[in-house]
Amino acid sequence: MALNAYYDTRQAPITFDFAYFLINAECYRQASRLPSINLNIICPAFRNLSPRDKEYEDSEKAWRVHHIVGQIPKLLPTVRETKFQYDEVQQISFPNYPTTYPYTVGKDPLRPYSPTVFRAMHEKGCQIQPFEASSHAKKLVRNYTRGHPYVTISLRTTGFQTERNSNIDAWYKFSLALRESGVRVLVIPDFEDTFSNRTAWEYDWDVVDFAAHDLDLRLALYEDAVDNFTVNNGVSAVLFFSKCSFKMFKMTVQGIQTTTAEYLKANWDVDPGETPSFFQDNQKWVWQDDTVENLMAYATLTKA
User: Fold this and answer.
1) Is residue 302 part of a domain?
2) Is the terminal CB of the chain with fewer CB neighbours within 10 Å at N or C?
3) C-beta of residue 288 within 8 angstroms of C-beta of residue 294
């Protein structure tokens, strides 16, 4: 018997918040002592609630269902199958998560993708860092890196909420300092950048665009890295729910609801300067902007 998880795009976003939903479902699987998850993506239409929801046309949302929502389950070994359904659900299979599904369309249910759910389950003993790259993705990455030690820098250069974007000049100077000390640096560009301005390619560093297009390869690259550096962004959920070492800067950006100290406190129960309690010792939220000075403090701490 498997846990049947239902993610309905009429009530939930087509973003990396889906990873939170998946971890919540995994916690319920563990608590129920079930061997696996059958995942059902219900997508006859799409939510139009948040600023990001309103930013995308339905054609892009439909594409994101498969490119984002469809890729994340590959990182969770207990997902047995993933099905996409483009019409109404006729019958719910039990046991299920959320237990309140199906919702009344138009009502705002308790968010089944809220971090408060897996935080509570972690306190009861659930393991919430189960993401792991596939064995073949690991093999491909090791073929690419030839076994040489490296660190990664993941950039955010999207056109949505540009205030949150990486300070790319500072990151480049940081990469030079690392390289001068003998550390190899691999730069993962923003997915959007690979099809638009290609800003990452304007700098003299090693850009690994394959990791921007495939989450399994991205995680495999993270897993083998000495350390991983980035700013607060959606795809970092891949790091949160793995055991990879990372340092994430620019936790707060004023004027954007999801990057305020108040929002992070309410959802993650952390105060400025703190890191979520379930993180590993080598996983850290750095509550500083990604300036040259702040990044350079980590240049001498990173040894390949």
Assistant:
1) no
2) N
3) yes
